[in-house]
Amino acid sequence: MKPVQSLSRPMLLATRVRSGFTILEVCVVLFIVAVLFIVAVPPASHLLDEERLQRPIRELQHFAASARRDAVLNGCSYDLLLLSDRYVLRPSSDKEAKDGAVYLLPSDVTFAVKRAGEKDFQKTTDGRWTFSPNGLCEPITFIFQRGNDWIRFQADPLTASFENKQSYIQ
After folding, report:
1. How far are the Cα atoms of 3, 10, 116 from residue 7, in angstroms, in the given order?
2. What percent of the chain has pLDDT over 70?
3. Band (93; pLDDT cuts 50, 70, 90)
4. pLDDT for 96-155, tens place per residue?
5. What is the pLDDT of residue 11?
6. Least buried of 17, 40, 41, 158, by fewest C-beta within 10 Å?
7. Distance of alpha carbon 144 from alpha carbon 129, whole angstroms
8. Nearest to 115 by CA among 136, 137, 146, 148
9. For 45-168, which CATH class?
């Protein structure tokens, strides 16, 4: 019978199985994640700023499409009241403006309109955009602003859709 050889202490350490990560490996991974986060945050905040400006525009587009649809279906004109702090959609015959859909603008978003034949944008406190029963509306150019950021677009008088969008978002 062969004698059993005992393993020496250095041999035991060499055959030990590693489990887990060293502190150095964890620190390197955390550093890489931090660098990626620092690089990715500025573009993401830009998207949030743009979204805050796009939402009132989407709502206006929804209101315009609804006004056009309702005018054609009901055979009567609809007004989209463009107030300084909100939009109100109602039939033209309803002069009280108490009934109808309302969208409140965010407090940091302002807009101005340029009607056909005008040279400059005018801030409106009590503007009216009328949609006739044949589906036509007045061609209007809008500019929405939030701080130094802005988006400008035109409303198509045949479809009430928005086109020729231009924007400046920092």
Report:
1. 13, 8, 95
2. 85
3. confident
4. 655 678 999 999 999 999 998 899 999 887 889 999 999 899 999 999 999 899 999 999
5. 55
6. 17
7. 16
8. 137
9. alpha beta
List Cα–Cα distances, 40 to 48, 49, 113, in angstroms.
13, 15, 36
With beta carbons less than 8 A apart as the criterion, state whether 111 and 145 touch.
Answer: yes
DSSP code of residue 134: T
Distance of CA 91 to the CA centre of its chain: 29
Both tokens assigned to 47: 């998207």
CA-based angle 141:53:62, to the nearest 5? 60
How does residue 36 score in pLDDT terms, banded at 50, 70 and 90?
A: confident
State how far the Cα of 70 lies from the Cα of 168, in Å rounded to an integer: 33
pTM over 0.90: no
Cβ(108)–Cβ(101) under 8 Å?
no
Kindly list the domain boundaries of the chain, sorted by start residue.
45-168
DSSP state of 98: -
Q: How many CA atoms lie within 13 A of 102 on its CB side?
A: 10
Residues 57 and 161: their CA atoms lie apart, in Å, by: 11
Look up residue 103 and give its two tokens. 């969208």
Within its chain, how far is the Cα of 109 from the centroid?
Answer: 12
